[in-house]
Amino acid sequence: MAASAVLAAVGVAALPAGAAAAGCAVAYTVSSQWQGGFGADVAITNLGDPLTSWTLTWSYGAGQTVTQAWNATLTQSGAAVTAKNVSYNGSVATNGTVSFGFNGSWTGSNPVPASFAVNGVTCTGSTTPTTAPTTTPTTAPTTAPSGTPDITVNTATKYQTIDGFGSAVSIWGSAWSTAETQTLVGPGTSQLGLSIVRTGISPVSSEWATQVSALKTAEASGSDVKILASPWTAPAAWKTNNSRINGGKLKTDYYDEYANHLNSYVQYMRGQGVTIDVVSIQNEPDWHPAYDSMDWSGDELRNFVRDQGSKIQNTRLMVAEAVNLNYGYTDPTLNDATARNNIGYIGGHLYGTEDSGRLKPYALAAQYNKPVWMTEWNFHEAASDTSTAWADGGNQAVWDETLDDVVRTVHKSMESNWSAYIWWYGKRFYSFIGDGTAGTTTGAPLKRGYAFAQYAKYVRPGDQRVAVTKSSAASPLEVTAYQGAGKIKLVILNRSGSAVNNAVIQAPQTVTRAEDYLTSRTVNAAVQPTSVNGGQVTVSIPARSISTLVFTL
């Protein structure tokens, strides 16, 4: 599948009578293209006064036809296309952005539309007054007035619902202790607030009991903790290579036994008091190492969940946890109505995903309302596996890797509309709590754990990501915002070498309380001062840090 990206010109949006100015930018992106078909993403940024509804129109010049759309209602008459908001995304604040996507067909060529119009006004590339000014404009001030927002939260523009942030227990070996589990999932001081725990499904049922205590503790100690269970292999006798390792395919005449095996695991855990929320069909079906593994194609996964998925009860299924979120392992299931209805989630691993260009929204999953979970990544190159640098909370190399690689990819995953981010082992010397090696103390929180908790502890399951805009002063900051349970939460990465002092954050309504938690090379989840004035909160964002702001409305 060839992919290309083309941005359209800036356009002007008509606003209600009496509005001071109107304007918008339209970005039309051909996200993927194949023989006879293509996918496109469209983003409208409102540069004028707030919109309560919108209609975007354009014409195709080469006979393209829209076939299906999501997050908008699209109609076509000849070459003319009309896209209208749906019930939940008609309101667009000043500087807010609303997006939708669609699939289409083409023959011969697929050029980008030459122009766009929003609410009947053609694109001009500037913000235009809706009525002539009655007086000569005064000279604009050379500095922004006090209280001008640097970050504006727009709760009218909504994105994905968050399912959580988590890590895996040991897939082979011992379980977390009760105290370790509470440190990882608990909400208290020096606890990290994880809301997803990933575990393995052993092909040997006698090994299932190993993780029962840790999983029960996780569900009892945290808030809305979900359990994801992933198998690495079926029993050896059911596979074409008669081995647990080096890949090998599941024999087709054992598909029903494998479905019963996964169902038996879920029911066993239920009997032990553990709810398995999600069951993956296979960990990394495209990776066949000399340890537990099993080979599937995308079509084989589709056939299995289509024909056998309904046998796995009291849980929801996931495909395909492929390396680099390879769409070839998930598109076949999404494109088959029966298979699609038998799954609840799309999973993928972060290894190579950014380099492959798939650290972005997955349009086909969004089209069918299947949340995307990033279910595994492990990156630790800052020091050797025996270096005591991992135990040193102030080590510069470890902090740089944590900020620039680990939490940056959490930020990018959230911007990609993914609903969950699950790290590899939660207990490891390079991870969230120490395991007693490389100078770490077993069970003690590590710097990387505190940094990850800036998301996990405050952005909770059921929160919804909402839009933010930034001033030029806040341009070094990477910001995502979330709304839920009467609160707004902002996670702010400042990976630059300069602080952003006295940043003004504009909420959509009065803030009754603001809390600011900061992790940097020198502090862990430290409370920072805030100033609240109505719907505005003023904070300072230190250089090379991650902050979480929690506003109570």
TrEMBL record:
SUPFAM superfamilies to which the protein is assigned, alphabetical: (Trans)glycosidases, Carbohydrate-binding domain, Glycosyl hydrolase domain
Stretches for region Disordered: 126-149
UniProt keyword Signal present: yes
Name of the molecule in the record: CBM2 domain-containing protein
Family annotation (SMART domains): CBD_II (SM00637)
One Gene Ontology term from the biological process aspect of the record: carbohydrate metabolic process
PROSITE patterns named in the record: CBM2
PANTHER family the record matches: GLUCOSYLCERAMIDASE (PTHR11069), GLUCURONOXYLANASE XYNC (PTHR11069:SF38)
Signal peptide: 1-19
GO terms assigned for molecular function: glucosylceramidase activity; polysaccharide binding
Record-annotated CBM2 domain positions: 17-126
Similarity remark: Belongs to the glycosyl hydrolase 30 family.
Keywords of this entry: Glycosidase, Hydrolase, Signal
Short name of any one Pfam family annotated for the protein: CBM_2
Lineage per the UniProt record: Bacteria, Bacillati, Actinomycetota, Actinomycetes, Micromonosporales
Species name: Paractinoplanes tereljensis
UniProt GO cellular component terms: membrane
